[in-house]
Specification:
heterodimer, A: 401 residues, alpha/beta, globular, B: 101 residues, alpha+beta, SH3 type barrels, 31% strand, elongated
Amino acid sequence: MISKLYLELERELRYNKRVAEAVKNRIHRLFTEYSGREGIERLKIMDFCGTHEWSITYYGLRSLMPRGLELVAGPGCPVCVVPSHYIEEAIKLSFEGVVVYAYGDVYKLRAKRSVKGAFSLSEARSLGSDVRVVQDILSAARDASSHGKPSVFIAVGFETAAPAYAWAILRDHLPENLKLLSLVKLTPPAMFYSLEVSREKPTEPPISGVIAPGHVSTITGAKAWVPVAENYGIPVVVSGFEPLDVLVSILEILRQLVAGRAEVVIEYKRSVSWHGDVKAQSAINRVFEVVDDAWRGIGFLPKSGLRIRDNYRRHDAFAEYGVRELKPGMWEKDMPPGCRCAEVVLGKAYPTHCPLFMKSCTPLKPIGPCMVSIEGTCAIWARYGSREFLDELAGEIGEAG
Amino acid sequence: MVVHVCIGAPAVVLSVEYSRMTAMVDYGDGVPREVLIGISQDRVKPGSIVIVHAGVIVSEMSIKEVLEQIEFFKSILEGEESSVVRVYEQLLEASKRIRGG
């Protein structure tokens, strides 16, 4: 009975046109009021999480926004920010006879340099390596214990994925032959960085509000975003993923802007609390230490990554298989030539600004990392289009006519 | 076989094995699947509605939280007519029944 009601609630949040219309009208009214009062024509709101970008694009929410209110995607695609170096290291391991377990999008991720002719784990597999696609760590653990060969799981993700890896270690789910290559990243440092970058270009409006990630916040708690609201003086709304969740979050950001407030508010109350899950946070802390980590196309961000602590080094692929860490001195731009994924990830450019987008780089044959993952902004725009896409098309038709 | 890394799927908990921190869940397709419990174990019981992300339970949803969210919706819409209210009333009824039973 309860689950049926939940389903009904989810349906309401997805298909209730009347409520959506009411929220949309309110967004328009508040935007007119705020932009008139402040004398601005454009306002940017960042949606941090790849799944929010998916909802916004898939449900065409940009087309409901008043002209001048821009929704820009942030660095919330964990696969997009895995440095090329680690993909190359994983390919190398696979050629050395280690069974490599990866999520489907990591499997397709292209490195900048090839290793023995393979640019990706999928290419390594076609050249004879044993690379297996899995959906979660438990499946990898089960499979690895069935064959007993040296194996590695490429553990990407944000705070949401980290408890799974921590519990897998703490509750002895990992067989001796399966090691974790922890490339887990923490989201607040990336949000700080993208907000900083958005202020660098005086011709562009800065980010005036943030739609904060929903499931990351179930673990960290909404409190993790307080420094963002306080340091940048902008509203932050932790949002659910249904279209109405996102619309209501945008409305709340505008309400705060009009009232001159900058607070952290939870819209996704059905899943997120203020303090998050303390037990999950403590499990993460027991297993992992926080390190300065490299983000693809961006560089090193302080205290933005998780590596397995020494106590658990027998599960650590870095220690056990001698995987080389990327050091700040080794850092180089690791995007393919011409690819603007790094700017797309930081909300500085739209996919349509990239010379490769839907020309040489497509979902079928991705070049840049943003085109690989289902959460990559380019992959989402390629599949479901966007207003910018349509504007461009309309412009061309207009010119032709 | 592409996993939405940030997305979570709601599921119903069928059984729990606390010693291994695992649970069997049903995503609504009738197929039981084993997942890890990522949150405090006292929040996960048979019958709980949970959010599962990449094979790990990251959140549990309670009636109270859903009601809070609907309150938030109502406050933000400032009384504009909304069928969300209807769902709210149904949930409230269900909650009363559970408390009563």
